[in-house]
Amino acid sequence: MPIKTTEIDVWVFDLDNTLYNPRRSDLMPQMHVRMQEFIMEEFGVDLVEADRRRQFYFEEYGTTLRGLMDHHQMDPEKFLPYCHELDLSEMHHDVPLDQALAALPGRKVIYTNATRLHAANVLGRLGITHHFEDMFDIADADYMPKPHQSSYDTFLQRHGVDPKRAVMFEDTAKNLKPASDLGMRTVWLRNDRPGAQPVDDDESHIHHRADELSDFLNEVLAA
After folding, report:
1. What pLDDT is stored for residue 66 in this prediction?
2. DSSP code at position 174
3. Strand, coil or helix: what is 26?
């Protein structure tokens, strides 16, 4: 079923690998290196073990941080600033996305497992900060990341979102399941990143797929 702008009040966007195309500006490899370095230094393990822990915690808990918090009582304010110290120099103003967001009616909100500072840095580089009325980050979720249900409940309550009149855009397919269960329309940004793919034969929680966010939004606007 096509998305009609008249039926949507709030457009909810994930940040990393959703608002920017990883084929042009992929920050994930940098983040993974920073996480590996942190785990190696913190626990005195080698690179192989550090990467194993990073990936295992991400897959089991939604973020590496959540796993470190549950298993090692990690202080998020120690971990997050280090991991988000990234080189954004290859990220530039996304004119097509800027124009599509400007034409899109309704409220626009960022919902990310990252931090507000990281989100602000990325949005600034993309030149699209002014389109978003607010953001909901990992601290706002009390460090319970997507796809934990409590994170979605807190998000909806804090921002006054009626899920039946909202659309959620995500690059990680499993993060769309709770959104769909709540009644939100969902859009998966196709990618081949490990852990971001649909994990079973039931993909009913993925209502739409997109390769380029600006193109998809323009199709919605033209419908």
Report:
1. 95
2. G
3. coil
The residue ranges of the chain whose pLDDT is under 50 are: none
For residue 136, report the phi and psi dihedrals to the nearest 5 degrees. Answer: -125, 115
Q: Is the pTM of this model over 0.90?
A: yes
Nearest to 10 by CA among 205, 207, 185: 185
Q: How far apart are CA 87 and CA 46, in angstroms?
A: 24
28-83: CATH, from 3.30.70.1400, 1.10.150.450, 1.10.1020.10, 2.60.40.10: 1.10.150.450
Angle at 55 between CA 72 and CA 184, to 5 degrees: 100
Ramachandran quadrant class, 143 (left: phi over 0; alpha: psi -120 to 50; beta: rest): left
Cβ count within 10 A of residue 102: 10
Best CA proximity match to 170, nearest among 217, 126, 117, 111 = 111
Between CA 167 and CA 219 the distance in angstroms is: 15
